[in-house]
Design goal:
The protein is built from 4 helices and 6 strands, in the order ββααβββαβα. By secondary structure, the chain is an alpha+beta fold. α3 links the parallel β5 and β6. The protein is globular, with a radius of gyration of 15 Å.
Length: 145
């Protein structure tokens, strides 16, 4: 799979401020209509455990890179912020692809890499929630609960 600027590779998300800032801007743009109260500071707090690299197994954050630039990201987190779901863990969360690469397979590549990472970590069941991509997740093999 190639992007306009080169091959897409999934790696552990670089924790540098410019990478996180770019991803946060995509998250805000994508989710602002549905979740207007989840702002820039909230997204920074979401990524903080990864940036701080605490010794816990989770979160794990992966980034899609093309020609040295971040083009997408996904997280595997211990819990989601949704109400009444504390018994479910872990979660695929915050899957985002930069607007310039949407619809070109980068999201599928990120999701596959996240699921493979779960398998390597001994995680045999993982959950996710989406407000706008149910059809896409169902097409990729996920089931509704």
């Amino acid at each position: 799979m190639t992007s306009p600027s080169g091959e897409v590779e999934v790696i552990e998300l670089p924790a540098d401020p410019s990478t996180i800032t770019r991803i946060v801007s995509w998250q805000i743009e994508h989710y602002i209509a549905e979740f207007p109260s989840f702002d820039h500071e909230d997204w920074l707090a979401f990524y903080a455990p990864w940036v701080e690299r605490k010794e816990a197994q989770l979160p794990i954050m992966l980034g899609a890179m093309s020609s040295g630039e971040i083009v997408g990201a996904v997280a595997i987190v211990d819990r989601d912020d949704l109400e009444d779901v504390d018994e479910y863990s872990p979660w695929i969360a915050a899957l985002i692809v930069g607007p310039e690469l949407r619809g070109q397979g980068t999201g599928s590549l990120l999701l596959s890499a996240a699921l493979e990472r779960c398998r390597r970590e001994g995680i045999d069941r993982v959950y996710l929630w989406t407000h706008d991509q149910s059809d896409w997740y169902l097409r990729t093999g996920w089931a509704e609960k």
